[in-house]
Design goal:
14 helices
Amino acid sequence: MPVDPYILLLLGTVGLAALVPARGTAASVTSGAATAAIAFLFFLYGARLSTREAVEGLRHWRLHVTVLACTFVVFPLLGLAARGLVPVFLTHNLYTGLLFLTLVPSTIQSSIAFTSIARGNVAAAICAGSFSSLVGVVVTPVLAAALLGNSGGGFSADSLVKIVLQLLVPFLAGQVLRRWIGGFVTRHKKALGLVDRGSILLVVYTAFSEGMVRGIWHQVSPLRLGGLLVVEAALLAVMLVLTWYGGRALGFGREDRIAIQFAGSKKSLASGLPMASVLFGAQASLAVLPLMLFHQMQLMVCAVIAKRRSHDVDGPAVSPEPAAASRTAVGTATRSG
């Protein structure tokens, strides 16, 4: 299974931060640039989300509620249960990052792509991912405040103000201005996608540079990283099983169950990294490590599952619309979300 090229870029950025961390004035400049980049990212997220499509998708409300419950209820409960693995498998800092991972929204692009490959309900996957991102702008920081407390880099009222100013306000501004700039954003989707990924690389470099300067990485051993991978593999396996068989128990058909499985079992790197930078401050480097590892793991595993689902003998033929969505979505599955 090939590795997501963007993950290689992220790892290269981590290596650069380890070898040449930003210090002094350079650290101040990169920190300011990262703050601006995060605000711009969430502005673009708001500008891209179609309110009309979201409203039309409400007719699948049972499916969307199921995905939201998996993303913001079941995942966090499993994250809280993993507290019992400290300190045997996980250090406290790695557990904090793991718990944060369970709080972030679902993906959009990769959920669409895998649902389409598996011949599932692509329209539902589009709406489910969009709803998750929309809800996550508010719910993820609230859950982080409630469940992480002071472990989130000193979570406080000031942190909430930063979240509102850096995440929520730009997002709402994008939604408001979508009427005028939506066409531009759509026409220049590829170029703006490069801006997205470049901004996230800047956020990662800033976070890991600060971690290096503060000596945070001395707290992590290869054995601990191995334990983290085992825990994340178990977490992903549990969610894949729950979303598939839980969807059947709730009476959903095959196409809807596929959308629920892929949208309800994955977490968004694109949304999680900027949020972690705001929430965790100097501790962001360790906080985002579990999310980066989980992101690559979910892509590899879900690619295999999607291909197998596409060969199900009882699967209905794909309509022209989902097939077209597949060609668009597969090209971006591993580059965003």
